[in-house]
Amino acid sequence: MTSLAPALPVTRRDLTALFAPSSIAIVGASNDPAKYGNWLAVRALRDADTRPAYLINKTRSTILGHPARPALTDLGGPVDLAVIAVPAAGFDEAVEDAITSGVKAIVAITAGLGESGADGLARQNALVARLREADIAMLGPNCLGVLDNTTGLDATVNEFRPGSVSIISQSGNVAIDLAEHFSEQGLGVARFASLGNCADLDVADLIDSCVDHEGTEAIAVYCEGFKDGRKFARAAARAADAGKPVVLLSVGRGAASTRGAASHTGSLVTSNVVLEAVCEATGTELVSSPFEMANLLQVLVRTRPPAGSRVAVPADGGGHASLASDSLEEAGLRVEEFSADLAERVAGELPPTAAVSNPIDVAGGGEQDITCFARVAQRLIESPETDAVLMTGYFGGYGDYDPAVVSGEIQVGRDIAALVAESDASFIAQTMFPDSAAAQALRDSGIAVYRNVEHATWALSRLLVRAEVTSHPLPVLPEPAAPLAETGYWPARRALTAAGIPFVPAAEVATIGELENAVADLQFPLVLKVLGDEHKSDNGGVILNITDHTALVAAWDDVQARLAPPVCSIEEMADLSGAVELIIGVRRDPTFGPIVLVGIGGVYTELLKDTRCALGPITADQARELLQSLRGSALLTGFRGKPAVNIAAAAELVATLSNYAAEHPEIGEIECNPIAVTPTIAVALDARIILDH
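The chain above was modelled as a monomer; its predicted structure follows.
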């Protein structure tokens, strides 16, 4: 049975000295403005009145007009945080000095270690072992530093506007890019941590620290690779359950993990699919660009998730009203016609020419009385007919049209935000004038504002999906079972049968004599399969519907003449007249472990690619949800008069296979394709196990 409870308590690292040090030392402080040691020293000295800052330079007694010491051990006492910005040749000495002097945390700016080749990696690993023995946390090396705007710590080389989103990034430039997009959206940064080589602290350690940080409302992660995928999953799920969403931007996503895939499952479970499955399991939001990340984050930190999919659309133009409505419906949201009562209430706030059935066109109401937007918003927020409001169009531009309106338009923005805050409503805005004072008033008061309506509707739809799952229990990997010794078709059948997966009656045969003996215990019609060929059906290695002994001998002679197989399988032919064929499989990702796949199967598996994946192992209930989320799920529940098939039996089979794969870490790929699901049973018709090399 799959366990969804934590197997053992997780030990989280105390990173107080990294983000809120009582003192800081810059090792490699410099007078040269072209060096990191100079930039870091300047920033550390800015805060020296509240956080003592010490400058370390082996050859100079003063830096930037302040005293400098040749080593940390010359300070006469420990410091909490040492930021090391020395050449790679001097890094080992600097680390040993930090250990000797009692430093509690290190930020390693130094490059030329683990990323430089095998020798550099060996040096890096040896130093990490020394630091862990001394209980000293290290960020980096090869990173751009750390910042915490809530504690005043600035140990990095760029400015980050204060705010409530923490950035954890493996690329310094991407972090800077993100921060620029944040500023455009009125967002800011609570913390910034540059991962660098992740030699000691990794993305999961930093996510965990941000979950416990009061100043962090959401966590933006750019990561090019994960050292421990399951550790990341635990941290991300913990963040989601704590109400601090993780938004992930990644590249590459482990393309090598699918290179040389030997099964259908292996080719279908790509690196991108793996990451999507992990994100779904953990409540992590996966995005494709810094711009998309900023767009999503502003709604995550500013907007209450809607309780349902009904959206009211107040607009100041028929075109924008229609465009917004179409975009919402394409995103899976509903723009339903108002009741006569609500339409009448809205009409009471607008000119007689206004359209009030949803979407709303204020039809000149803004020019006549800018406060109508706030009154209409109030009517919509108060109504039980709406789950969310998307205000769209010209709002924010009236002040440009008539400067006398500017102050009133700004006040309306504040009034709307006050209504939203008081009612805890789900409300977002799209405007042609996102840089206007009125739009800024909305942002400053807590309303998410977008320039493009498709971005607004996309963000709102993501928010709705997110609200539907409130907890993210993760599967625990079982203790490994005795490893498999054989992985051919029949060894796989025997192993999976013992694990509880049903197969049709069959026998393994190598000679005509063995065939004759085997069929005595089988019922016609039969299937003859040539073994050892992945695509045996394509190559004529599967003979179906053998109805009698004469046809059986003819089929045997045919495959022997054409293919000369060393061994075959003779099997009873399943009645597929009312069956649906599925593929189920598991691929072991080197970072995240077993990934379960279900899909419409048989010979059309790779053509249709109607599959869904999940972080394994999974329960039967989870397997059922996966099956019902397939595009072709109508085939399972009855389509065009056909009877529904036994989804529960199929789900049990999926869960059993996922648990078996999880118990055998030596398995790289395992699949049953197809399994036949009838109105009464689910039975495997084929099996394939490939060991990890």
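The chain is about 35% helix and 20% strand.
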